[in-house]
Amino acid sequence: MSSRDPVDWNVLRAATDNDKGAMKEVISIYLHEGVKKVKALRSAVEGQDPDQIVMLAHQFLGSSRFVGATEIGKPLSALVKMGRSHQLNSTAAQLVNRTEKEFVRIDHFLTAPHE
Question: Helix, strand, coil % (nearest 5) of the chain?
Answer without folding.
Answer: 75, 0, 25
